[in-house]
Fold Sugar ABC transporter substrate-binding protein.
Amino acid sequence: MLGLAGCGSGTAQEENPTSIKVWHYEEDNGAMGIAWKKAMEIFEKETGVKVEFEKKSFEQIRQNASQILNSDDAPDVMEYNKGNATAGLLASQGLLHSLDDYVSQYKWDEKVTGSLADTGKYNDKGVMGSGNWYGITNYGEDVVMYYNKDMFEKNGIAIPKTYDELVDAMQQFKDKGITPLSEGAAEYPLQHLWWQLVLSKADDSFIKAYEMYDGDVDWNNEALTYATQTIKDWTDKGYISKDCTGLKAEDAGQGFINGTYPMFFSGTWWFGRFQNDMKGKNITFSTFPGSKKVVGSSGNLWVIPEKSKHQDLAAEFINITLSPEVQDLMGNSGGLPIAAEPSKITDKATKELIESFNQVLKDNALGFYPDWPTSTFYDELNASLQELVNGTMDVKGALAKMKADYDKGVEAAGVKD
C-alpha cells in the first residue's frame, strides 16, 4: 500500500511496511560490521520490521551509486563514502534525502559535531562543510601505520618513532630481503600514503584550496612534489614493491595479516579485523611519524536515498547505530565510536586507538582524503600512481597528469566560483 510521503519527501511512502532494505560494505568481523549487525537486531526487536540486509563491496557502491539511487532498486538506507565527489555529488543531483528534520528530531548534531559534522553537510553545489545534512556518521577514522612487532623483534629492528627512524627501519628490512611496506595501487592504499606525505609538508590553506576550492592549487609546490618524488624513491629503493600496481586494498591487508610485510599504512577500519584475524601476533600502531596532519575524517555516512519508501524507519535505524549499546560494542570490537561511554570500553588496545584519535581531533589534525575534490579523481589518482610505480611515468609527468585530471574534474563539477 502506498501512503503519503513522509518528512516532506516527494517519494510515496509505504504504509505498514514489513521490511526495510539496508546496504553497507563493512566486513562481518570488522568493528562496524559487528556493531551494525547488533543495530539490525535491535531495530527488528523494537519495530517488528525485518531488515533485508545486502552486503555490497566498496567499489560496487562507489561506481554505481548514481544509477542505483535513481532507480526503484534503491535501498532505504545505505553506507556511502563522504566527500564532495561522493555524498556531495549525490546530494547535488537530488538523489539523497535531506536529514535536517531527523537531525532536529533525534538531536544527532549533539553527537556529530565539529570536523565530524563537516562531511555530513553539503551545499547546493555538493561542497562539504555547510548546507543541509545529507549523511550521518557514527564513527571516526584516520589512517595509521601498523607495525608487526614480532617481525621487528625477530629482525632486531626498533619500532620507529620519528620519520628518520621509519626510513631507517625500511632500509634495514630491505637489507634483510624483506619488502617493508604492504601496498596496493589498484585501490586506495597507495594514494593514502601519497596524501600522507603531502600532508606532512602542507598547511591548512593548502588543504582548504585542494578540498574546498578556496584558492588555487599549485601542483608544483613543495608538498605535492615531495610526496610524488618520495613514492618514486621508495619504489626504487625497494620499500614498495612494483607488483603493488595490480593489488587491491584487501590484497594489501592480507599481505600484512599473513606476515609477508612488517608495515601497513592504512585506516583504523582495519583495526578490528587485525584484532580478530591476527590473534597471538603482536601488533601496534601509530599516526604517521613526523607529521602534524593525518589522513582521516569522520567515518563513512549513513544516507537515505530520495527514492526510499521507508525514510522514517531508515532514520530510526540510523539513530540506533548511535545508541550507547551499539556504540560501546563498536568500541570493544576495535572501532572508533563517536558516542561510546569511555568506561565501557574494556579492551586496552582499543582504548589506545580511541585515545589516539581523540588527540587527532583535539589537535585539529584531520587532513581528509585526496580523491574527494572530483567524482573521477579516485580512479585517476590511482592510475597516475600506478604509472609512477611501474616506471612508465616520471615525477614531473605524474604531477602534470594529476593536475590535468583535477582541474578537469573541478571545472566539470562547476563547484568553484
